[in-house]
Amino acid sequence: MQRPASVPELLTARLRLRGWREEDVEPLAAINADPRVGEWLGGTRDLEQTRDAIARWMDHWRERGFGLWGVEELASGSLIGRIGLMHWDDWPAGDHDAEVGWTLAPSAWGRGLATEGAREALRFGFAERDLKHIISITLPTNLRSQRVMTKLGLTRRGEVDWRGFHQVWYAIEREEWERIR
C-alpha cells in the first residue's frame, strides 16, 4: 500500500468508518468475490483487483479530501465493506461533487447499515467538505440500493448508460439535505 492518506474516522451507532489498512485487503477481497456482491458491481473482483481498488481510493482521499472508508461493525470489529464518496470525472449526466456509494457483505444486508453509514458519509460531504451536489448510482434492478437512496433523501433523476452498464441515478443538493436533516 502507498503512504497513508489523511482519512478521518467517523462513528455511527453501529459502525466505524475508517481509513484502509493492509489487513483489509483479504476480507474485502472475500466480499468482492461473493457472486451476490458481484451481481451489483458488474462482476466479482479478486485479491489483486481489490488491492488496486484500495490504492485508487487512497489516491482519491489525497487528491480530493474525501473518499471511500473501510466499514467496521462496532459489535464485532469486523470489516464488512466500504462506504463513502467518490468523484467521477467521466460521469455523463451532469455536474456532481461526489457519488455516495456502498458495498457491504451479504451478512450486513437488510439491517439498515448501508443507510446508517451512507447518512454519515453525506453529512461529512455536505457539512465538512462543503460539497453542493451528491449523486448515487446503481443498476435498475438493484431495488435495495434504490430504497437506501430514497431513505437518504435522494430523488431519482434519470437513467444513463455509463461504463458499459445501464444505470439509474439519484441526487440531492446540500439545501435539500439541510432541510430534511
Please tell me what the overall shape is. globular
In N-to-C order, the SSE pattern is EEHHHEEEHEHEEH
How many E-type strands?
A: 8
* Number of separate helices: 6
Which structural class is indicated by helix and strand composition? alpha+beta
What do the pLDDT scores average to? 93
Strand order of the largest sheet: 1-2-3-4-5-6-8-7
Strand content: 25-35%
Helix content: 25-40%
Rg on CA atoms, Å: 15 Å
Distance between the termini: 37 Å
Major beta-sheet overview: 8 strands, mixed
**Low-confidence regions:** none
Write a structural description.
The chain has 181 residues and is α+β, with helices and mostly antiparallel strands. 36% of the residues lie in helices and 28% in strands. It has 6 helices and 8 strands, in the order E-E-H-H-H-E-E-E-H-E-H-E-E-H. Strands 1-2-3-4-5-6-8-7 form an 8-stranded mixed sheet, with helices on both faces. Strand 5, helix 4 (113-128) and strand 6 form a beta-alpha-beta unit. Helix 1 (25-33) crosses helix 3 (47-64).
How would you summarize this macromolecular structure in one to three sentences?
The chain has 181 residues and is an alpha+beta fold.
Question: What labels describe this entry?
Answer:
eight-stranded mixed sheet, alpha+beta, single chain, 8 strands, 181 residues
How would the blueprint of this fold be written?
Elements: E1 10-11, E2 15-18, H1 25-33, H2 35-41, H3 47-64, E3 68-73, E4 79-86, E5 98-104, H4 113-128, E6 133-138, H5 143-151, E7 155-162, E8 165-173, H6 174-180
Parallel strand pairs: 5-6
Antiparallel strand pairs: 1-2, 2-3, 3-4, 4-5, 6-8, 7-8
